[in-house]
Design goal:
The complex is a heterodimer of chains A (116) and B (148).
Chain A lengths: L3 E8 L2 E10 L4 H13 L4 E5 L3 E4 L1 H16 L3 E5 L3 H9 L2 H4 L2 E2 L2 H7 L4
Helix pairs in contact in A: 1-2
Chain B lengths: L7 E6 L5 H14 L4 H22 L7 E8 L3 E8 L13 H6 L7 H8 L2 E6 L5 E8 L9
Antiparallel strand pairs in B: 1-2, 2-3, 3-5, 4-5
The chains are: A alpha/beta (116), B alpha+beta (148).
Chain lengths: 116, 148
């Protein structure tokens, strides 16, 4: 099984990005490539579902940090849902809960774009 | 690995491909030292950040280098060292301004901050013979409540 697989699917005008595995400096190119392609294509309403992530190193959070203002400038945002365990803990200790809106479930995150 | 065992030392190629190996070895060592699964995961992520720093900054991604990883269990702390012969960091940031980094579209600059948030003590030491070493320590359960 690969270290990281990144699936995407559409939910209304939102794209849900679902990485499975772990994101570190070795695997981040796969994750970042998907996010880059979405933002460049104008798909700037993005939800990242963390339900299937075992861990995320700073490289993975850096990929979000580097693109979130680009998405916002295009009228969208990058929001995060379903973080668990160590991933949720690291998200908080890095302070990403102040940079990035988070939701308990993917559905809540998708619906949040209804009112921006 | 118990508290009275000898240090464990392994040499690892300094490549990003080896990050998952280092993560798993560290996680297992921390579990064997009595840390709970959450703490073991955090220690493994922190050591991965130090390894990434060595690969990307000390050796600037050049192939053919290695890192010596040492697990040094003590009575109060688990000390982990990553010894290398690459360039030393020019400075270690005291903290990060995420908002500013995001506005500048920066993708890096979080690694040292994350190490410090997950561990109780993080330093980079240099010897006179061009050997650098990241030193990371995590207090044992009961020594100090883990940060939440």
């Amino acid at each position: 099984m690969p270290d990281l697989q990144v699936a995407t699917r559409r939910a209304a005008e939102v794209v849900v990005v679902e990485p499975k595995g772990f994101i570190n400096a070795h695997t981040v190119a796969e994750f970042e490539g998907v996010l880059n392609a979405l933002v460049e294509a104008g798909d700037v309403r993005i939800v990242i579902s963390g339900a299937h992530l075992s861990y995320v190193a700073s490289a993975g959070f850096g990929a979000i940090m580097g693109l979130i203002e680009e998405a916002r400038a295009g009228g969208g945002d990058i929001r995060v849902a379903a973080l668990t365990g160590t991933v949720a803990h690291i998200f908080r200790v890095l302070g990403f809960d102040r940079l990035c809106r988070t939701f308990e479930t993917e559905e809540e995150a998708v619906l949040s774009f209804g009112g921006n | 690995m118990g508290r009275d065992r000898a240090p464990l030392e392994i040499d690892v190629p300094a490549t990003c491909e080896c990050l998952s190996l280092v993560h798993e070895a560290t996680r297992r060592a921390a579990l064997a030292e009595g840390f709970d699964p959450s703490a073991a995961d955090e220690i493994a992520v922190a050591v991965g950040e130090a390894m990434t720093n060595v690969v990307e900054h000390a050796y600037r991604g050049e192939p053919g280098h290695s890192v010596r990883l040492r697990f040094l269990p003590g009575p109060e702390v688990l000390r982990i060292e990553l010894e290398h012969r690459g360039a030393a960091p020019t400075s270690l940031p005291a903290g990060v301004d995420l908002g500013r980094l995001a506005r500048e579209r920066r993708r890096g600059g979080l690694g040292v901050h994350l190490m410090r948030r997950l561990m109780d003590h993080v330093v980079h030491e240099e010897s006179a013979v061009g050997v650098g070493c990241w030193v990371l320590e995590r207090n044992r359960p009961g020594s100090r409540p883990p940060e939440s």
